[in-house]
Amino acid sequence: MLSIRNLRARVGETEILKGISLEVNPGEVHAVMGPNGSGKSTLARILSGREGYEITADKLEYMGHDLLEMTPEERAREGLFMAFQYPVEIPGISNIQFLRTAYNSVRKHRGEEPLDSVDFLAMVKSRLKEVDIDQSFLRRSVNTDFSGGEKKRNEMLQMLVLEPRLAILDETDSGLDIDALATVAGSINSLRSEDRSIVMVTHYQRLLDYVVPDHVHILADGRIVKSGKADLAQKLEKKGYGWLAEHAGEEAEA
Amino acid sequence: MNAFAIPDFERQFDVRREQAPAFPDYRQKSLDDLRQQGLPGAKTEDWKYTSVREVLGETFVEATPAAPVAVPECAARHLAVMVNGYLNTDLSRLEDLPEGVTLCSLAAARDNHRDQVDAMLGRVVRHDRHPFAALNGAFFRDGLFLDVAPGTQVQEPLVVLWLSGAGDAALIQPRVLVRVGEGAELALMEQHRGSAAGHFTNQVSEILVGDNAGLTQVQLQDTGKEQLVCGTHVRCSRDSRYRAQTIDLGGKLIRNDLAISLDQPGAEADADGVFLAGRDQHVDNHLRVDHRAPNCDSSALYKGLLGGGGRGVFNGKLIVHPEGQKTRAEQTNHNLLLARDVEIDTKPELEIYADDVKCSHGSTSGELDPDQLFYLRSRGIDSPEARALLVRSFALEISERMNHSRLRDLVGEQLEPALDRLARNELEG
Predict the structure, then answer these.
(1) Across the interface, which of A49, A73, A91 has its CB nearest the CB of B393?
(2) pLDDT digits over B3-37, tens only?
(3) Which CATH superfamily is domain A2-253 in?
(4) Which ranges of B39-161 would DSSP assign to H, the alpha helix?
């Protein structure tokens, strides 16, 4: 699904990612954890096609395509979805219009007929329940004056509507109260299937109580310093990122 | 046909004096006001960014009633069609206007509603710093008279179509008088539709909004190769509500002077606008709001969209007079620059002579937000479509502020395709 080998990224003189390698197979859920400034959000942004980074990699492939050759919209149409840490407010475009335009762009790419507004609304309504938001939400401008929790739920709504093959969730859990966290986790779990993959980028272990990952990677200073199973996250929760820094130091010395 | 070069106004006035035109005293006063301040030039502060050199260099013919070049389709139930500044009753649909509404040519009103005309003509408009209004006062031939009797409700919009005839470059100078009586409501949409001809329209409207009355006025301007200077002077009485939307879809030269005076306590005014300017187009909106009484509210939001080669001007002036205690007022102008070779001159001004007021003003100009663009693209929407969506959303914020749904739809029918054209042109260019 996603194959990364020796990914490096810099902005100007500053190297942010210093050689990341990661394999994500269909059906797997990966968690990428790390302290602030470790480069985990940069990794998510690069995968979604954000410009502004000088990127080199021995390999950076999604579904066998070279990601660096694909525009952000091509990635999305091929089923790559990024849930933003800070979803952007767009006054003047209604949520329903935004969702339908996005949905039909993906359908058109697949050679399918666009869905008319009546059929689309029916489909979206069923998804609204899953993310526990009111229908009036659809008429509001995209993310405009939404609370933090509403913005994250809106990201989940988009994810459920677009049914991606690979979902990258950039700190979708941060800033959520426990109810919203449970809802968001429910959306992620409902997406889990044999042919889909999920990469959760997170600072906290909390989300992983609800969405148990197959693999956990710990990122520090632009490198994956440790990979393991779900229990690695729990260990990290107990010992904190300080333990990791020492650990990383040992490894670097070795 | 009488040739008319505007700088030659003194001699033109003498020629007309012999024909004993109507309203001689007002015309004389207008001439004096014009002579005193002179025509706008490069050094005139209010005309610093808008040149009328071409208009002042042209020799026009004075417009007479004519057949319109084309009549756009209009499904409005109440429709007044003006051609070259003269009411054309054959093309108009006025039968269904509610009782209490009087709509006729200004010439007819002079005969049939003389007292009302005398009470309004020249009483609302300011000539000071409005040389074209003074020019209109000295030379207008006809125009439109609209009176809504106290308590009369006109919910279905009245559409006034301003069209022009074919032929040589004409000087079109209509005068419009509108009174909305006490407790009455009117939804008015004026549409200026230019042709390929080199006409120049210098229109002046005088509007009175009575006690506790409401007027919603849209001015939609799509003037093509024609040039338009449009002065709209409004006085608002106690507890009245005036809501204006100026929608400029582009033109060789469009200059609006909207002057709103809140004369009595409790009056409210909103003035919003969208202006589009592309290559060889110049759109200038001058707004002035005077707070002359306590407890009045006003707000203004103008949004400019400039495509390659386009030129825009916004000047918003908010004046709170010493009587204007407890004023709440704001003026904002945001501009979206869609190409590099555009120019926008924006200047919000605030003059406050009262101490207990809440006023704000501001202005921004910038390109499309790259974060918004990326967000849309990351959902599979391609770059051209994402840009078109953002251009629309920027402008349609103004439509969302329009609470008269029928007027909002009428504006949307023309604004939305114009926005798509602008976005598309910028992508191709």
Answers:
(1) A91
(2) 999 999 999 999 988 887 899 999 999 999 999 99
(3) P-loop containing nucleotide triphosphate hydrolases (3.40.50.300)
(4) 53-57, 106-112, 114-120, 131-139
